[in-house]
Amino acid sequence: MKTLQNLTGGVWGDSFEDTPLDVVNPATEEVIARLPGGCRADVDRAVAAAVQAQPAWAALPVAERVAHISAWADAVAEHADELAGLECREMGKPVGIGRTFIDGAVAGLKASAAQALSYDFEETISHPDGSATKILRHPLGATAVITPWNFPVAMVLGALGPLLAAGNTVVVKPSERSPLSTVRLFELLDLPPGVVNLVLGDARAGAPLAEHADIQLVHFTGSVGAGRKVGAGTGKLLHRAVLELGGKDPVIVDAGVDPVATATAVAFGAFINTGQICTSMERVYVHQDIAEEFIEALAEAAGTYTVGDGHGEGVMMGPLVDERQRDTVRRHVADAVERGATVRAGGSEPDGKGFFYPATVLTGVDESMLVMTEETFGPLAPVVIVSSFEEGLERAARSRFGLAATVYTRDPDHVAAATRLPAGVVWINQWQGGGPERLYEPAGDSGMGATGARAAYDAATRPASVHIAAGTASGEPRR
């Protein structure tokens, strides 16, 4: 039984709080590790280390900071199989799928850090009278990253690149439900002491970190409720927050597309990682002209998503992260069926140990049902038949969430109309498409603060202007 420790100022050590939390393997329901519950004293110690280390880190040339980050990325790549195995044990993600996302995160970390080499940390604008204005982008100082349980490695790497490359130091608080891979990630770290620090625990660590007076920015990914609390805490301090919160992402399937191929793509978007992705397809609007063929193909595809321990060969879907998450899925399905929905595939969990739930397709759903209005975060694909693309577009926009949306169409006019969906990201004919150039800000209750590409560096720095009068080199003042 491994007991996890915090990393503060380059030193691994025990928490000031001695009440442990259990890490449970969701496939076997066995306790596999323990971690501290966390406390304010742990946070104070980690933040102090980050504050102390920040000036020296910021003083390094940008290229040197980027080289440090790239070396860490290389170390992570060498241990990707090990990290994917830890993710499987702590939150259920099949190893092969975990490895794919970790590889992508490593490439993303390198790309985002490399963007610092072309970012304008200093720009000089010359004026006709001989004076000049310097635009400087200063690092903020000590920052915090609070990550969710569904992508422990990828979410940490995705947030840290721009923050570190811009000259900030960081305190990371991973979810208490999946800390093992993050601890190992930090064991591979080779940065100056205090540049990156790790505090474990639940809200007893997260709340004081988000509200700490010396934390200049909080990058938080999680639920809407928790995100509101983070935003309120940083707002009182007049500090920054980047919040990526819940989603209820729609997919619109237009007439004219291949219904079978599109159903296969939608199944992947709805069921991969057991539907535990912020941008999982959670609402499906299909045109009536192809609806029946699409639904039959989607139900058939759902049956191919084999459920089991993610270490097993051929397993497509692991368990949900814990009993609480499976209860949410159960409740959403039961509510839909009670209100008239039809189960076309799945809909009942297997016997035995583990928090498993099959890929499930529902039809006959409407906006009165939880499965259409609340984030499920499970392997459910509720399907609504619409009479036109315009109806699908209108119903897709009927949500308090606005993280991402996907549209399958062959009509150029419908492509243009889809760009107006109230979402941070809109994918046309390719879910999860795009590269490091992507930047977005969630709409509605899905969060606030732009991320990606240059926006990540804008968020990680504070602009300042310095005006230099003409003739300043001579030392003579101007009236």
Q: What proportion strand?
A: 15-25%
Task: Indicate the radius of gyration in whole angstroms.
Answer: 24 Å
Q: Which outline best applies? A: globular
Helix content: 25-40%
Which structural class should the secondary elements be placed in?
Answer: alpha/beta
Give the oligomer, counting copies of the same chain as homo and different chains as hetero.
single chain
Overall mean pLDDT score?
96
What is the topology, as strand order, of the major beta sheet?
A: 15-16-17-14-13-19-20
Instruction: Tally the helices.
Output: 15
* DSSP strand count: 23
Terminus-to-terminus distance: 73 Å
Low-confidence runs: none
Major sheet details: 7 strands, mixed
Short précis:
The protein is α/β, with parallel strands linked by helices.
Structural summary, described in words:
The protein has 479 residues and is of the alpha/beta class. 38% of the residues lie in helices and 22% in strands. The chain is built from 15 helices and 23 strands. The strands form six sheets. Strands 15-16-17-14-13-19-20 form a seven-stranded mixed beta sheet, sandwiched between helices. A six-stranded mixed beta sheet has the order 10-9-8-11-12-22, with helices on both faces. Helix 3 crosses helix 4. It starts with a strand and ends in an 11-residue tail after the last strand.
Write the layout of secondary structure elements.
Layout (H helix, E strand, L loop, with lengths): L1 E2 L2 E3 L2 E3 L6 E6 L4 E7 L3 H20 L2 H17 L1 H12 L3 H20 L7 E5 L5 E8 L2 E5 L5 H14 L3 E5 L6 H8 L8 E3 L4 H8 L6 E5 L2 H14 L2 E5 L4 E5 L5 H13 L9 E7 L3 H12 L20 H16 L3 E4 L14 E4 L6 H4 L6 E7 L2 H8 L4 E2 L1 E5 L3 H7 L6 E4 L14 E2 L2 E2 L4 H8 E8 L11
Parallel strand pairs: 1-5, 8-9, 8-11, 9-10, 11-12, 13-14, 13-19, 14-17, 16-17, 19-20
Antiparallel strand pairs: 2-3, 4-5, 6-7, 7-23, 12-22, 15-16, 18-21
